[in-house]
Amino acid sequence: MKRIVWLLWALLLVLPAQGWAAGNMQNESFAKAKRLLEQKVYYDHRQTLYCGAAFDEHKQIRLPRGFTADKHRKRSSRVEWEHVVPAENFGRAFPEWREGHALCVDRKGKAFKGRACAEKVNADYRRMQADMYNLYPAIGSVNAVRSNKNFQMLGPDVPSAFGSCPMKISGNKVEPPERARGQITRSSLYMADSYGEHYRLSRQQQQLMQAWARQYPVDAWECRRASRIERLQGNENRFVKESFGRSRRQCFFWKTLEAFFEEMQATGRKKLDEDTYRL
Questions:
Q1: Exposed, middle or buried by CB within 10 Å (0-12, 13-18, 19+), for 151?
Q2: Residue 22: which residues within 8 A CB-CB, separation 6 or more?
Q3: Cβ neighbours of residue 142 under 8 Å, at least 6 residues apart?
Q4: Long-range contacts of 39-47 (CB under 8 A, 24+ apart)
Q5: Distance (Å, whole) CA 211 – CA 267
Q6: Rounded mean pLDDT of the chain?
Q7: Are 173 and 154 a contacting pair, CB within 8 Å?
């Protein structure tokens, strides 16, 4: 018990500013990242990023009333893990993606390039692809239509592309629902901060992300999500922690609470009801 009390106090008292965050250095497996997110991060918050659709442990989606999809309808029933910063947008920085590699030859002797080659040959690419801070659950058809389009405000005259889910698409631009903008901006800033050699935000994108960061501050779920990923992946998203000076204590509360439950389970004690400690 003394160990648990010490852990709680230590986490609550340590509040120094953090340095620039490193990216994912532990996991190179995209499949493993998705498994961890499903089982260790989203197990008690099964909602998609853009549309807030509920899904179950089998990745089956309960579509919101009024949701429609003109394309990729068969993918609407399943959750897919969306790269907020699309894999293509950072993948093109890798020579294996653009030009191929001597090791990228299929069984018929035909050379290939693109995502498959970068994933096969380059460990840095694999770690970026598997970075859980950049991965979110999405309705499959929404993920497919969004593709590698950049985020932008499109204005009131552009209708939703998915009925009651206010996700707008116009050409190669997408305007996400308000509910997703805070998480989008802190993931995008994190990726540019952590992987500057391979990914940079344009000036226009930087300005948009900074505006959204001010408009849409961190909430309790985003703090909990980041805390869980930090424990699993071994690095932090400083943009969630600092949130431009807001909600820092709230984030620290959730990190402390998560560590407390982990400690309780590790010592074999009875697991407490987590709802008791919600804000």
A1: buried
A2: 194, 235
A3: 48, 50, 51, 69, 82, 162, 165, 167
A4: 40/228, 40/232, 41/132, 41/225, 41/228, 41/229, 41/232, 42/137, 42/225, 44/274, 45/221, 45/224, 45/225, 46/137, 47/137
A5: 44
A6: 86
A7: yes
Q: How far is CA 279 from CA 13, 193, 224, 251, in A?
A: 19, 30, 12, 11
Q: What is the largest CA-CA distance in the chain?
A: 63
**Following DSSP, what letter does each residue of 163-192 receive, concatenated?**
BTEEEEEETTEEE--HHHHHHHHHHHHHHH
Handedness of CA 69, 73, 78, 84 (dihedral sign): negative
Using only C-alpha atoms, the chain has a radius of gyration, in whole angstroms, of 20
Note the pLDDT of residue 255: 55
Residue 35 neighbours by CB distance under 10 Å: 11
CA distance 149 to 171: 8
- C-alpha distance from residue 123 to each of 9, 57, 95, 162, 210 (Å): 38, 30, 13, 36, 30
Paired tokens of 84: 């907020």
Give me the amino acid identity at 13: L
Return d(Cα 133, Cα 259) in angstroms, integer. Answer: 19
Report the pLDDT value the prediction gives residue 8, as an integer from 0 to 100: 42
Locate tokens 């389970």: which residue? Answer: 265
- Band of the pLDDT at 262, cuts 50, 70, 90? low
- 263: helix, coil or strand? helix
Q: What's the CA gap between 53 and 69, in Å, rounded?
A: 14
